[in-house]
Design goal:
Blueprint: H1 15-33, H2 35-60, H3 67-90
Length: 105
């Protein structure tokens, strides 16, 4: 799991937060060198922006009871499409995410 930190707690819970900027910089650098990384990155960014808006709207619609059905369905669709896009990208394909507004690129 991880070694104890200086105060006796585990260090691993903060690791994703610390590593994220390093990962983003690495992907940005690779995007300049690789058309594949750049294309998948732009498509994934557009997908995440679109679905962040969709999930926010459906979460707010819980207040009028419609969201109690829509939010779990939207969350499930987001999860399935994210996994599908990840699998396609790992196979070397550029995945065109459905239900996506093209904000970037």
């Amino acid at each position: 799991m991880g070694r104890p930190g200086p105060r006796g707690g585990l260090r691993w819970p903060g690791r994703p937060v610390r590593e994220r900027p390093r990962t983003a910089r690495g992907l940005a650098r690779q995007g300049k060198e690789s058309r594949f990384v750049d294309e998948n990155g732009v498509r994934a960014l557009n997908f995440q922006l679109t679905w962040s808006i969709i999930l926010l709207v459906t979460a707010l619609s819980v207040l009028i009871a419609v969201g109690m059905v829509l939010f779990p369905l939207a969350l499930l669709a987001w999860l399935i499409l994210t996994v599908l896009g990840t699998v396609k990208a790992s196979e070397g394909e550029v995945y065109d995410y459905p239900l996506t507004i093209h904000f970037v690129g």
